[in-house]
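Hi there. Long-time user, first ticket. I'm pasting a complex I've been working with (about 753 residues overall). I'd like to know whether the download I got is complete or cut off, because the file seemed smaller than I expected. Thanks.
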Amino acid sequence: MTEAQNNLPERPLSYLDDSGPRRGILGWITSVDHKRVGVLYLYASLGFFAVGVAIGFVMRLVQLNMFHHLVTAQTYNALFTVHGVLMIFLFVIPGLPPVFGNFMLPLMIGARDVAFPRLNLASWYFFMGGAIIVVIALFTGGGPPDTGWTFYVPFSLKTGTNVTLAVFGAFILGFSSMLTGINFITTIHRMRAPGMGWFRMPLFPWALYATSWIQVLATPILAITLVLVMLERLVGIGIFDPAKGGDPLLYQHLFWTYSHPAVYIMILPAMGAITEILPTFAKRTIFGYKAIAMSSIAIAGVGSLVWAHHMFTSGMSQFAIMLFSLLTMVVAVPSAIKVFNWVSTLYKGSIEFEPPLLYALTFIFLFSIGGLTGVMQGALAINIHVHDTYFIVGHFHYVMFGGTGFAFFAALLYWFPKMFGRMYSKRTAYVAWVPMFIGFNMLYFTMLVLGLQGMPRRYYNHLPMYNTGHEIATVGSWFLVLGLIIFFANLVVARFRGAQAPANPWGGVTLEWSIASPPPLENFEEIPIVTHGPYVFEPEARHEP
Amino acid sequence: MNHSVQAHEHELEHRDDFGAKLGMWLFLLTEILLFSGLFLSYSYMRARYPAEFHHAGSEMNAVLGVTNTLVLLTSSLTMALAIVAIQRGERKRAMAGVVATIVLGVVFLVNKAFEWHAEIHHGNYPGSAHLATLPPGEQVFFGLYYTMTGLHGLHVLVGISVLTVMAVMIKRGRINPDRFVTLENGGLYWHVVDVVWIFLLPLFYLAA
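Hi, the file is complete. Here it is re-exported in full:
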């Protein structure tokens, strides 16, 4: 029935070969195997990513001022809203944890599956259900929502577009995220292999652990906020409506109480993946293991206390503004600790240069720019100046795309041979990087500059003084898309025609590399017994001959 | 294929009652946080409109509210008794406890329906002409009242459905004296729904 049996009889039966009692696509969408669920998430979220990229591409074209007869201002509003909703709720949040978390977490902690395999599959159905509702919302009712992905009241209550259904879709997506968080926390608490104490756990699981707590603690607040928006639109309960005694600012507080921690849902697992990649290619243990583990927890904790820095211009007491400014500066500290640890890991390492390392280093570079521009916005005077400008757009694309996006690509290159048992063309992976990196910086660094010059975000038109900047950014977006196409074409080809990958192509020492590629159905024939930390590269320290 | 068949059997063998309860507690945490968003909104609005909340609260039917509290507290007792019974191997009593809990849940919802009906009859519902004549603080009070008791009622309904499934599972022996963590988790859910109500009672019915 499979290629593995025909061509390579020596390879053990993998999760790709054995679909259980059902065949074909049913064998995938009814499988509770964490690896299959992870792959389902991978395909789904990459599909949404492609649509999001296409919309972003069109938005950049509109800013050339040449296509206004094709895209009206109302359509443009819908485009940036849908771009944001797709990218945030359907790609970045469900990016690393459901894809690589699902696939790798049990492998890395030496377990056969997650704690609740059926709930895991159910989470995927919630994800797809929410996604389908969001997509339906685009084509029915009053048309696609035009509020921006933040659904700010009062506009989201007044607009005739299909906000209610889109918000309901986001509500369902929240369930998926929350249930995945519950699953991972329980898995990490209960299913670590014998001998794997907390501080022998690899750092990607640590990052997932911190992320899962944010998912569990923050998502319900978003859920109730979205419920209130729906009720407000449907029956007019008045909690956000000043005419009925309500307060629109309350919406912003509730929304960011979730949505700021949510940016750490996006970045923490990305940091975790980078922390796995660097020691493998530097062939030495990670620098400051405990500092990295604890900084994940610290980011999760402090990151939950900074939400109002999105609202410095919305109207708050001076005391509150100063407090949130201070906390915003504080949350940069654990992130910086990680960056220093990554760089120190490379210092005096025996570096073996491979594509995943290139993308991981790119992550560090781009994330540092994103992080530092973030600290700039924490400063009150600058914040007022750059609020709602392209500076913000540039900043969060550096963090979300340059950070999480590139970490996603790095993780994909790192774990692809393990997941699919195939090797991609390393050369093409390097080639794809060049236009991607050049295009990325042309696009988003220019946005930072445009923002400082005063270009407001979400505008359909712009003044002639911004023409040059917009042209550079749009050309950059072409390079970026070209790079993405090469990158993914390479992986698609590898998925079907790639050479067989060895079990451990990079010389990694965490547990996922100790089993076959692709992993067998139940991962480990015998659950391993862990006797040392996760990044011990010296054979003598591993009690091995 | 032989390997995979064995593997699937192994998967069925995996059992971790502590883990199942840990997962349930985490889920309950999310439920409490879901309501906490509303409690937060309530506190803020109450601090902003103390007099209006006082006045609107005095129009609530405290007798119905307290009756419903007693109903729910009793249902938590019957739920706890059902779990004790199944641990002792008394299946019939466990069944009786679960059924009693379901019945009390239904009684609660019927009471709630009467109460909402009366309020709507008085014209106190979102979007009504009568409500629009009240001061803004009272409008918000009723907005919160319907949202919070409505969401709670929805949770009672979900709880009833869950417990109905449990009753079937007890009948079929899927929940038995050796394997009752599912019933315990169902009970935990029911207790949390009860606890939320205990906070709703003073906020709305005893606010005056």
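A couple of notes from our side: The mean pLDDT of chain B is 91. Chain B has one domain: 16-205.
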